[in-house]
């Protein structure tokens, strides 16, 4: 019997070689399925408003409740706001936007209290009872259309600009800055994903 028996070879070098060989593949998969990690990759579904537009003063944007009482928009600061605008009669396109706002809000789980939904009504038409009931919890405010267009669409209201006011959905941050816009008929899950990122990374609101 040999006085110095040969020790079993360690498997560690082989494991390290194997790990180094597959590491690039693993990294590629991680980057591929996480666009935020890709150089120049889009990290949001909505379009960032650049530059951000601050919430107007009461003099620059006249807002009332549905029953005509003055409303101070500044009172909504401190919350993330999901916002849309449309006529009081609320046609199908309007109802779809309110549906997206309601469902996106509901899907935020434990963060639901950090968010409010706002519908700016752009005329004097009565809001149908079925809309009031279906979207209870949405803050419904009447606003002067031209002033509202300056804030939300960034331009004076005109026939050419009406789509820029009535079609999108917006996000306003807790400081009162209009900061993101979504197109007509947005994907609620993608809006929820954007909002989730904002809530996760924000120390305000």
Features:
20% strand; 6 helices; 7-stranded mixed β-sheet; alpha/beta; single chain; 205 residues; Glutaredoxin
Description:
Helix content is 34%, strand content 20%. By secondary structure, it is α/β, with parallel strands linked by helices. Helix 2 packs across helix 6. The longest helix has 21 residues, at 12-32. The protein is elongated.
Brief summary:
The protein has 6 helices and 7 strands.
Question: Globular, elongated, flat, extended or rod-shaped: what is the shape?
Answer: elongated
Q: Name the beta content range.
A: 15-25%
Helix-strand sequence = HEEEHEHEHHEEH
Q: Biggest β-sheet, characterized? A: 7 strands, mixed
Tell me the total number of β-strands.
7
- Give, in spatial order, the strands making up the sheet with the most strands: 1-7-6-3-4-5-2
CATH architecture group name: 3-Layer(aba) Sandwich
Could you give me the name of the CATH homologous superfamily? Glutaredoxin
Q: Class by helix and strand content?
A: alpha/beta
* CA(first)-CA(last) distance: 76 Å
State the helix count. Answer: 6
- Radius of gyration, taken over Cα atoms and rounded to an integer in Å: 25 Å
Q: Helix content range of the residues, please?
A: 25-40%
Pick out the low-confidence regions: none
- Quick check: average pLDDT? 85
Instruction: Report the CATH C-level class.
Output: Alpha Beta
CATH topology, by name, is Glutaredoxin
């Amino acid at each position: 019997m040999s006085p110095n028996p040969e020790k079993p070879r360690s498997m560690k070098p082989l494991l390290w070689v194997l790990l180094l060989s597959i590491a690039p593949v693993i990294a590629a998969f991680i980057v591929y399925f996480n666009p935020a990690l890709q150089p120049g990759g889009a990290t949001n579904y909505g379009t960032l408003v650049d530059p951000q537009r601050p919430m107007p003063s009461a003099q620059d944007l006249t807002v009332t409740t549905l029953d005509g009482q003055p409303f101070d928009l500044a009172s909504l600061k401190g919350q993330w706001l999901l916002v849309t605008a449309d006529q009081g009669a609320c046609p199908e396109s309007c109802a779809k936007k309110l549906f997206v706002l309601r469902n996106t809000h509901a899907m935020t789980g434990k963060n639901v209290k950090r968010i409010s939904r706002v519908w700016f009504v752009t005329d004097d038409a009565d809001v149908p009872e079925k809309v009031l009931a279906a979207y209870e919890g949405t803050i419904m405010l009447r606003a002067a259309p031209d002033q509202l267009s300056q804030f939300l669409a960034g331009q004076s209201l005109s026939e050419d600009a009406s789509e820029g006011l009535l079609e999108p959905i917006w996000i306003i941050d807790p400081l009162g800055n209009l900061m993101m816009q979504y197109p007509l008929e947005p994907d609620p899950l993608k809006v929820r994903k954007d909002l989730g990122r904002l809530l996760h990374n924000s120390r305000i609101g």
